[in-house]
Amino acid sequence: MASLVRDPFVDLEDWRILRTLAVYRLALIALLLAVHFLELSAWFFDHSEPGNFFRIVSAYALPALLLLIATYQRFPSSGVQAHLAFFVDALAILLLMYAAHGASSGLGVLLITPAVGCSLVLPLRLGLLHAALATFAVFGAEFLRQSLNRIEGADLTNAGLIGLMLFVTSLGAGAVAARARKSEALAARFGSDLASLSRINERIVESMDTAVLVIDEERRLRLQNAASRRLLARTDGDSDGSPSIDGQSLITAVPILAQALYRWQEAPNLDPEPIALSPGGADLLPRFTRLGQNAWAPVLVLLEDAARVREQAQQLKLAALGRLSAGIAHEIRNPLSAIRHAGQLLAESPALPEQDRRLLDMIQRHTVRIDKIVEDVLRLSRRDAAVPQNLLLRSFLERCIATWAEGCPEGARAIRIDAIPEQLSVRFDPDQLQQVLHNLWQNSFEHGAPEPDDDAEAVLINVWLRAGRLSPGQRPYLDIIDDGRGIPVEVREQLFEPFFTTARRGTGLGLYLSREICEYNQARLSHVPRTQGTRGTQFRLVFAASEAPLTSVPTRS
Predict the structure, then answer these.
(1) End-to-end distance of the chain based on CA atoms, in angstroms?
(2) What does 453-508 look like in DSSP terms, one character per residue?
(3) CA gap 512, 365 in Å, rounded
(4) CB contact at 8 A, 68 and 61
(5) What is the pLDDT of residues 336-379, one digit of tens each?
(6) Residue 314 has what pLDDT?
(7) Most C-beta atoms within 10 A of its C-beta, which of 50, 158, 266, 436?
(8) pLDDT tens across 122-133, in order?
(9) Non-local CB neighbours of 523 within 8 Å, separated by 6+ positions
(10) Residue 426 DSSP symbol
(11) What distance in Å separates the CA atoms of residue 96 and residue 107, rounded to the nearest whole number?
């Protein structure tokens, strides 16, 4: 069922049409009065009667003025005023035609404008009804006038033409008005839908945990959601959490983000690098999207927590490893156990030749190696969730070294702590940090030692630990350094790839596993090339920012 409530926009247009007609009506009266006072009525209108002409025009002025006032008062309704206006116009013009001796005067053409205005405001059928009534009135007035004189066919023809023009213009105006109303109603409905969608989008963007900003072509901040306001409030040190940055230059408000935007504009295909909006703050991953096709279109910026993105990627990776490890356990471990068991039974045979026994030992060694690879992959996929804690690094390292020494019989494998501040704290899961450190130390002692055919005097490897902060207020780091033979330049790019190893007994999962654990704790493990002329290997572990109160957690062995 159609709604009986008129569209406000359409109703406003109706009042505008009625007001325009009222102004036109007064202008027409003023023009007719000017024609009368200049004594041009007889010249314009044949056989006119000046006295009657002036009285009709003067009487026409009063209702015309009242109709203009009514359009501003909007009372009565627009439909009622349209009817009144047409009847006033038709009556006045018919009287003027009668005073000017009929349709031949040409005044009948003035009926077209009121008919068009009425058809624009009223429904089409009412507009045609008014045209029919006006036509009948023109013919009636013409017959009445000619009944007092002789009948002239030309005047009746002119009256018919006037009626035809009224019908044609009313029909055209009504059709245009109906189509316009339909288009306006459709536009209003779509506008309402778009406004609703816009409010929904604004509500969604406002409630997003991801910081959202819009930057215009002049690199000024035009829009920000609640998450970005909180983020920038922490950056600016604003306690109310909602700094007003709208309209500010990006270079002034967030300089490091402006640099990231510039890098993206120079090379949009490169992956964005994490940024920190404040010293010691969390890493954020900026993502830029241009809201348009041209180079001057605004840019949408999403600031995501880099740690959360890494954690999500880590979860996907662990899920894939879980499926892989299940296949490995079924497809490799079961036949591998059968091979090992068969080798053990074969080794118990007393009649086994020495050459076959050496081959059997080779089979057993590689069986153990394959089993260790499977175990490393399974341990990676089954790793417990990280529980990062704030640790006093020096005291933690002392306990970790003590645990390492208990399982290492070689007393020469000493690990030295070098200039680590007592109050330096890091954030990491203590058990997982111990696992990473033990793995790195094991690599130094096993793979850093020279090969047997190298200089035999340089067998013992020294490892020392050094820590600090990258710069005042920035993240803490820990360097693990040894004086072994180092890592060749040609293999440094492959260090952290799974199953890559240069040792005959290695599995190639140690460093990969260590880096995965670090990323799971929002830290970063990397190889630091040594300066020219310096022996050894250096790994740097950059920790996440410490946020919780300091705790000293004992290491579980």
Answers:
(1) 78
(2) TS-GGG----EEEEEEESSTTS-EEEEEEE-SS---GGGGGGTTSTT--SSSS--S
(3) 23
(4) no
(5) 888 888 888 888 888 778 888 888 888 888 888 777 777 766 66
(6) 66
(7) 436
(8) 888 888 898 898
(9) 428, 541, 542, 543, 544
(10) E
(11) 7
Distance CA 23, CA 2 (A): 34
Q: How far is CA 23 from CA 17, 110, 498, in A?
A: 10, 15, 86
**At which residue do the structure tokens 């023109």 appear?**
138
Do 280 and 267 form a contact (C-beta atoms < 8 A)? no
Per residue in 28-81, pLDDT (tens digit) is 999 989 988 887 776 776 556 778 888 999 999 999 999 999 999 999 999 999
CA distance 128 to 124: 6
- Give the pairing type, strands 463-469 and 415-418: parallel
Task: State how far the Cα of 541 lies from the Cα of 467, in Å rounded to an integer.
Answer: 9
pLDDT at 382 (0 to 100):
62
Name the residue among 242, 259, 257, 241 with its Cα closest to residue 301: 257
Q: What is the largest CA-CA distance in the chain?
A: 152
**Side chain identity at residue 21, one-letter code:** L
Give the residue carrying structure tokens 């954020």. 284
What is the DSSP secondary-structure string of 286-301? Answer: EEEEESSSSTTS-EEE
The answer to whether the CB of 234 falls within 8 A of the CB of 243 is: no
In angstroms, what CA-CA distances link 378 with 327, 410, 431?
A: 10, 29, 18
Closest of 268, 274, 257, 261 to residue 308, by C-alpha: 274
pTM score of the predicted model: 0.43
Q: Is 240 helix (H, G, I), strand (E, B) or coil?
A: coil
Query: Can you tell me which residue has the tokens 């880099």?
Result: 306
> Which residue carries 């190639």 as its tokens?
508
Instruction: Summarize the chain as % helix, strand, coil (round to 5).
Output: 60, 10, 30
**Is pLDDT larger for residue 256 or for residue 503?**
256
Nearest one of 443, 454, 455 to 537, comparing CA atoms: 443
Query: Rounded CA gap, 324 and 328, in Å?
Result: 6
Tokens 């003027």 — which residue?
96
Q: Which helix (H) or strand (E) holds 529?
A: none
Total length of the chain: 557
